[in-house]
Amino acid sequence: MAAPAGPPAEAAGTERSEEALAAALADVPELARLLETDPYLKPYAPDFQRRYKRFNQTLSSIGENEGGIDRFSRGYESFGVHRCADGEWAPGAEGVFLTGDFNDWNPFSHPYKKLDFGKWELYIPPKQNRSVLVPHGSKLKLVIRSKSGEILYRISPWAKYVTREGSNVNYDWIHWDPEYSYKFKHSKPKKPKGLRIYESHVGISSYEGKIASYKHFTCNVLPRIKDLGYNCIQLMAIMEHAYYASFGYQITSFFAASSRYGTPEELKELVDTQRMYNKENVLYIMPKSVFICYFSWEVLRFLLSNIRWWLEEYGFDGFRFDGVTSMLYHHHGIGENFSGDYHEYFGLQVDEDALIYIMLANHLVHTLYPDSITIAEDVSGMPALCSPISQGGGGFDYRLAMAIPDKWIQVRFNVNIFFFLWILYEDWNMGNIVYTLTNRRYLEKCIAYAESHDQVNKYTLAFWLMDAEMYTNMSVLTPFTPVIDRGIQLHKMIRLITHALGGEGYLNFMGNEFGHPEWLDFPRKGNNESYHYARRQFHLTDDDLLRYKFLNNFDRDMNKLEERYGWLSAPQAHVSEKHEDNKIIAFERASLLFIFNFHPSKSYTDYRVGTTFCTYKIVLDSDAAEYGGHKRLDHNTEFFSEPFEHNNCPCSLLVSKILRYFHFI
Questions:
Q1: pLDDT, tens digit, 9 for 90 and up, residues 96-133
Q2: What does the DSSP assignment read for 108-159?
Q3: Counting beta carbons within 10 angstroms of the beta carbon of residue 330, is it exposed (0 to 12), middle (13 to 18) or buried (19 or more)?
């Protein structure tokens, strides 16, 4: 007798899928919300379930073995050198010793005691007069005897200050324990609704050919940032790094603020002064940590403690995690195109150890300080990376919209070609530009930018647009040339449309707000160690006879208009027009109507634009005289919409003039 037929294979597979989905929904508290937002993620519900369970298991294990993540993330209080017992982790060492100025560099007079799990401990009692044996400012080294008998001199990975004297290649570990440490006077700021980031580098912040200081940045750059209307500073290259030209990415001491700019107390003063100015956030770029065993217990302690150290000791308000793509995948994103197929984001290619670390890091940051901000630099577009951990996501607040500057690079390349052929900009595809600016995951916030530090190592946006004419034709005493006129107008338009359409946050690299010329290049052998391009020429915008002031004014008023209307915290814009022949883009966001004319030669009169039923007045006009425009519009004019359907909008209005290379709101 034949066995009874079972359910069809397809039906059985469907039943198993439904069971797996139900189990995932039961384990991940808010997974249903994520799947409601993006139903195409349902087949991957077990992946979110596994990630969330691993996150919870790790958190529970930390609680059972370390007393919770709060205690676990305070490794800097017990490792390194302190006024209490000192600790180190050296699992492969046969012996560990402390030497330095305090013992006349005797390598073996102060041995550490070996503990379990590769830990070592040393207690040095105070002198008879109760003063410390290791005073502030003294030099130290760890002496490590390997199992083969080799003697190694090393700086502690927990060192809080290291310096390099003169032309020395090696750093000295300096015990930093001042009698009077800097005390913060101002409280941490609240998280802003719309994030406007000023990306900065302390060392290049002077117009002089040298490395600038924390003090210089505090006194000279912070007031500019406040005036420009940015509400967040993103500081680069703060952790100590041996190679200045690495832009701070080749970290040598994770807990030490770079001494090439000044002292730790001066960095604290910088952060505190920024709080005073406008309760603005200060973020730090957290360099990527590739090729790390994220689930080594002590490595995890080190990394999480490092995050907490910068939040608590220096008062930073969050982090931009650099190179997240290289952390998320075993292939590190090398040679990957990332088409957007969801299979690329799940499966064995994902480094889930790294992903769980990212979830733990975001959990720690937002638990300690709920108003902190975390940003992911991820080129892959991994779904849910910026969704809450309770949904199975990575927990970041924002991701960088990295396709946007690439798009502007692409169209700038076309600019150079068509300059020569005198058919400038006519190949710009309005639909493609709009698609790039609006193509982002629903409810995962993005930081839009036209250029960051990554782009300016070739040319700045302004230099792409105006090139060598910036050396000769930026004076207000000379007539506009076609190149300078077009370049100034397009610089404003590109930045505004990116700001208004591209995301829920906006980023600008220091100096580019006023159209900084040339490019960025750190001193290195290839340029004879020159600082000429490793500086920011702020004096250009202060010179009333130069046109840089116009771009600076526009950037300031653009930010202040966003502060007033809040388009970054508003829902995505409704784009009513992207006309290829006319080169017109029109959209509405936050009760504002944006109209851009990218046409190189055509202006329009009585141009109909779809909109809601409302009365409009001009609030920002790139053709205004204070922005280097030609002052061709009357700002007292009112524009009345009427119930006349146009471009799928129930109402529309007639705009009396839409000028070439022009926008208004």
A1: 999 999 999 999 999 999 999 999 999 988 887 878 88
A2: TSSBPEE-GGGEEEE--PPPTTS--SS-TT-EEEEEEEETTS-EEEE--TT-
A3: exposed
pTM reported for the whole predicted model: 0.94
Chain-centre distance of CA 309, in angstroms? Answer: 19
End-to-end CA distance of the chain: 81
How far is Cα of residue 65 from the mean position of the Cα atoms in its chain? 34
For the chain, which residues score pLDDT lower than 50?
1-4, 416-424
Neighbouring C-alpha atoms within 13 Å toward the C-beta of 290: 16
pLDDT digits (tens, 9 = 90+) for 318-354: 999 999 999 999 999 999 999 999 999 999 999 999 9
Query: Residue type for 338, please?
Result: F
H helix intervals, 255-294: 264-278
Closest CA to 304 of 372, 254, 361, 240: 361
Q: Which of 244, 259, 232, 233 is nearest to 535 (CA)?
A: 244
What is the bridge-based pairing of β-strands 119-122 and 113-114?
antiparallel
3-state secondary structure of 364: helix
Query: Residue 384: which of 395, 374, 370, 376 has the closest Cα?
Result: 395
Residues annotated as part of the active site = 322, 377
Residue type, 79: F
**3-state SS, one letter per residue, for 603-654:** CEEEEEEEECCCEEECCCECCCHHHCCCCCCCCCCEEECECCCECCECEEEE
Question: 3-state SS of the chain: helix, strand, coil percent to 5?
Answer: 35, 20, 45
CB 598 within 8 A of CB 432: no
